[in-house]
Description:
By secondary structure, the chain is an alpha/beta fold. The protein has helices spanning 7-37, 43-49, 51-62, 90-95, 114-122, 133-150, 174-182, 194-197, 228-242, and strands at 64-70, 80-83, 102-107, 126-128, 153-156, 186-192, 208-214. The protein has one domain (7-242): 3-Layer(aba) Sandwich (Glycerol-3-phosphate (1)-acyltransferase). Helices cover 45% and strands 15% of the residues. The chain is globular.
Amino acid sequence: MAQSLTTAEYIRSFIGMIVFMVVLLISSLLVTIIILLTFGLATNWVVRTFPRPMAFPVLFFLGITFELNDLREDKEQPVIFIFNHSSTLDIPAFLALGLKRFRVVAKWELQYIPFFFIIGRLTGQVFIKRHDRAHAIERLNKTYDRLRKDKLSLVVAPEGSRKHEGKIGPFKKGAFHMAIDLGYPIVPIYFDGNDRLSLGGSLMARSGKITATIHPAINTSSWSIDTLDDHIAEVRGMYLKWAGMEE
């Protein structure tokens, strides 16, 4: 995690945050108009088209270059995407991936930010109360039918929060349960650089480079609840290796 910034980086970060708010404002207005005029039929087009143009102006003003390595063989099948969550920079970095036909499992509190509420609700993102297991399960069960019907992928941060000790925090079971329930492969995404550049809880960041790697899909067809802990440990071990922290 970055400890301090230069004066230039503070200025760039401040401008970057303003740009992000402006981008969210414009995007929320456009998304509202498009979704309402098309009676929701353009939702997947919006989800596919808007994220990258939203991300790159922010990264530019932060002085951050973004490199994407997509190692997948099949980019069309619905999957469970998982990613390492370490800072607020994860938001523009995720948007810059340009994924198609996905929905994000996000914490309930994000809805308190009007722009996220408008865009998230109109595009069918999944907001859950992380500390209310019954509510989370109910929300996800309602989502499953829509995911299967529309062949949508799901995006989850298995650490649950950016606030954790170490470079890679403990993995919660939710994403892995979903993979079994849906019969979806898991596709790990590893962000390298977010934690080093960011101060953590805001878009205050050093200039530098983020490298995102979308790894090949992990087949979960033979997984079961009885062996779930072993599979979680195996996948987390991959992240520890990528982070240079093998146990």
